[in-house]
Amino acid sequence: MKILGIGNAIVDVICKVEEDYLRQNSLTKSTMKLVDENEFKKLLSNLKIEQTIAGGSVANSIVGLAQLGNEVGFIGKVSDDELGAKYEEGLKKEHVKYFYSKKRETIPTGTCLILITPDSERTMITFLGTAGKINKDDIDIDAVKRSEILFLEGYLWDKGDPQKAFEKAIDGANKVAMSLSDLFCVERHKPHFLRLVKSKLDITFANEQEIMALTDAKKFEEVIEFAKKIKKLVIITRGEKGSIAINSEEVTECTAKKNLSVKDLTGAGDLFAGGFLHGYLNKKTIKESLNKGTEMSSKVIQIIGARIS
Description:
By secondary structure, the protein is an alpha/beta fold. The protein has helices spanning 19-24, 37-44, 57-67, 82-93, 141-146, 161-172, 183-188, 190-200, 208-215, 220-230, 268-281, 286-300; strands spanning 3-6, 10-16, 32-34, 49-55, 72-75, 97-98, 110-116, 122-127, 149-153, 176-179, 203-207, 233-237, 243-247, 250-254.
């Protein structure tokens, strides 16, 4: 197998809202907020659902890689309920091997409410459900060992059982890539993420905001110096400024595509990572891999949702 992803198995529920909705519900645009099941249901009760799809950050990347013809797999915890069945079905339809045997859990399958404002920005409210309860027994270590790269998401990391699951997977992996996922995750787990980036990960994906927060950088040049010093591959997306890869002393830049009809930024980073990893796994140059990531993210932001059909 080329790549195995481990991430939050979350069913995405996509809704369009006005800016007022965010203000009225004290939500910060473009961030992700964790809520309990009751608050989730309350927020959803007045909204019209545009689309429901099996999601989760790394799962989106893995589906992108499958669509590009790579042999891929995924581990993510769901319950044996209606949403859990929908989740597994969605992955299998996309030719992703699902290395998880679902059983009836006390907590239901996780759900993410993705709110799209008229400016195409997305704000996420997540009820992690059983996804956030992943533990080391959920990790199929043979699947980890059989894959060239293990791909993890920062969203999944948490003290206790998820941390133990992470560590088990990393210890069994041939090569490890991870996305920092969200500024909220970086600020919540900064010392742990810093340790992972410096000593455990071969490839780190981040946006400019996340990596600057992680390294306490005042200007972007400091991020480049940090990445050169740790001698790992660090990939940073910078919105309209394009993307950049730092690989030891080698710095490669890629410009963003212009004049796109942007509908929804959901999945932009996920598909960028998928495109980059496709290039990397298929022995393309760093520049070609950045270009593939840019092409994939450009496609997904011109449709609603995080999957290119």
